[in-house]
Write a structure and sequence with these properties.
Elements lengths: L7 E3 L6 E3 L3 E6 L5 E4 L7 E6 L2 H9 L2 H6 L5 H13 L1
Antiparallel strand pairs: 1-2, 3-4, 3-5
């Protein structure tokens, strides 16, 4: 029998592949709000990022997170994502 394949995703900040469980999912809901998805199952367009402030800063500076979510991020959303990333 074959072992179950590990799901891998790419971090939008550092562009490295990692196990899905090691990354945090940022999701744009169908209503247009942006939030961290702790369960990894929320409806909407998602992007994965390491649970490190450095990766988040890099993704915000290069606008990679905005491109992945196909929506501009307001300063309030950026501050909230930084606050939540620092808490983890």
């Amino acid at each position: 029998m074959t072992e179950k394949a590990k799901l891998q995703r790419m971090c939008v900040g550092c562009r490295q592949l990692a196990d899905k469980r090691q990354l945090c999912r940022v999701v744009r809901t169908p209503e247009g709000s942006i939030m961290l998805d702790a369960t990894g199952r929320a409806n909407g367009r998602g992007a994965y990022i390491h649970r490190e402030v450095a990766c988040l800063e890099k993704a915000l500076k290069s606008r990679a997170l905005e491109r992945a979510l196909k929506q501009a991020l307001s300063e309030d959303v950026k501050d909230e994502l930084k606050r939540q990333a620092a808490a983890e």
